[in-house]
């Protein structure tokens, strides 16, 4: 990581970009509903199932982000502030 500034503690950003340029990721014959969002798509994942590329990227990003967050230390909780005690003078 020479020359790069590390992210501040507690900050995680995940961005996935899949390469679906291979012809096997496109089926010109028919649209099928995406298994994530249900909208029609000609795109296919590596298993041949109908998927939008952005839906798959979002799913991977969510999984990576959840894992990354599990590795971050949990900030210590502050103790609850105690209200000052009001003492009434007896006359």
Secondary structure layout:
Layout: E1 32-33, E2 40-41, H1 53-71
Largest sheet: 2 strands, antiparallel
* Proportion of residues in helical segments: 10-25%
How many helices? The count is 1
Q: What are the secondary-structure elements, in order, as H or E?
A: EEH
First-last Cα distance: 71 Å
Oligomer: single chain
The number of E-state strands comes to 2
Radius of gyration equals 25 Å
User: What structural class is derived from the secondary structure elements?
Assistant: mainly alpha
Give a brief outline of the structure:
This protein is mostly helical and 91 residues long.
Explain the overall architecture.
The chain has one helix spanning 53-71, and strands at 32-33, 40-41. By secondary structure, the chain is mainly α. The protein has a domain at 23-71. It has a two-stranded antiparallel sheet with strand order 1-2. Strand 1 and strand 2 form a beta hairpin. The radius of gyration is 25 Å and the shape is elongated.
């Amino acid at each position: 990581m020479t020359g790069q500034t590390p992210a501040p503690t507690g900050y995680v950003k995940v961005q996935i970009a899949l390469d679906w340029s291979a012809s096997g990721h496109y089926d010109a014959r028919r649209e099928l509903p995406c298994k994530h969002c249900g909208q029609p798509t000609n795109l296919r994942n590596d298993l041949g199932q109908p998927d939008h590329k952005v839906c798959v990227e979002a799913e991977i990003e969510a999984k990576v982000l959840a894992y990354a967050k599990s590795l971050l230390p949990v900030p210590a909780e502050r103790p609850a502030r105690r209200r000052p005690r009001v003492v009434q003078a007896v006359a």
